[in-house]
Amino acid sequence: MLQDPKASADWLSRLRDAEAQLNGAILGQSRAIRLILLSVLARGHVLLAGDVGTGKTTLLRAVARAIGGPYARVEGTVDLLPTDLIYDAHLDADGKPRIEPGPALSKGEDLSIFFFNEINRARPQVHAMLLRMMAERSLTAFRREYRFPHLQVFADRNQIERDETFELPAAARDRFAMEIAVTVPAERDDRIALAFDTRFHDTDALIDTITPGLLPYHGLNALAVQIQDSVHASPVLQRYVFDLCEALRDPIRAGLAIEGADMVRLVRGGVSPRGMQALVRLARAAAWAEGRDAVLPQDVREVFGPVMVHRTFLGSAYEARREVLVPALMRAAFDTIPVPAE
Ligand SMILES: Nc1ncnc2c1ncn2[C@@H]1O[C@H](COP(=O)(O)OP(=O)(O)OP(=O)(O)O)[C@@H](O)[C@H]1O
Known about the structure:
Elements: H1 5-25, H2 30-42, E1 45-50, H3 56-67, E2 71-75, H4 82-86, E3 87-91, E4 97-101, E5 113-117, H5 124-136, E6 138-141, E7 144-147, E8 152-158, H6 170-174, E9 176-182, H7 188-196, H8 203-208, H9 220-230, H10 235-249, H11 263-266, E10 267-268, H12 273-289, H13 297-308, E11 313-314, H14 322-336
Parallel strand pairs: 1-8, 1-9, 2-5, 5-8
Antiparallel strand pairs: 3-4, 6-7, 10-11
Helix pairs in contact: 1-2, 2-12, 12-13
The structure holds adenosine-5'-triphosphate.
Pfam family, one: AAA_3
Protein name: ATPase AAA
Domain AAA+ ATPase: 42-186
């Protein structure tokens, strides 16, 4: 547990409260909600991917409200330029040219959430700028460096449209701790409620049901340090994490088999050290969220898929079927690598 048990208990109860409120507002997305909260605890950036109109924006806005703090948002479009994030040049009412800070700077260095809507509509130049903001939590503009110590980037992209979209480069994807799938709720009753219950028609009112600042943003960095320092990972658990990651890098050596795929050609590359760090940070956060001070295999399995999905590169013959093959690969790794006894 954390050094100060009272502070730890207070954070845990806030976490439970935030999770319950989010599940009350966003229907049928309990797994996505849990994963986003874990990324908040692990201070990792999040990419949401899914179908159109499934509540991705609503979910991220609701989480932003639970965290509190200054929040900025930008819509990805094909004509967006990196400088559009930094400044806005326009003529004022007197016809004089004016320069105002753009979305990345308008809320100052206390910025807690930068929300990038439809990130795959923006061009690679914009991704490159975002990459620095994500990796270094800083930005150079107007001849000075801005630092954003509390920054967490939330981005979403819809998976339906491929026209006029730009795939995120591998280095940009690797900077997202997780890619979380948001699909239509599985339960019939949830889908009916979303259509008929007018509570879900007014997004602003729905988001207003979340208590602002339940998980105060200015305390999250210190909390994350404490979680990472105090949650233990045994040597056996470390080996399990390593073996799972190696199985994705070299599935043949690990003895994985998937029907209809030539395992020699299936994967290219493997998970980066940054990816493994994300896995460990999130697994520790998952253990802490369950009130434990040691990581169990189930914590690793809870976050493994979303940490690895956008970091798994397939051979060109298989890329078109990645939505089926990547989950099959993860399942094969889970089924093949022996789970250590707890
Ligand atoms: N699971 C859900 N729970 C609560 N509201 C939902 C849910 N799914 C959709 N909605 C409602 O549907 C509307 C559209 O949601 P939203 O704009 O968040 O979707 P989106 O996934 O961001 O869409 P797009 O892919 O077009 O960006 C909102 O009014 C939202 O409240």
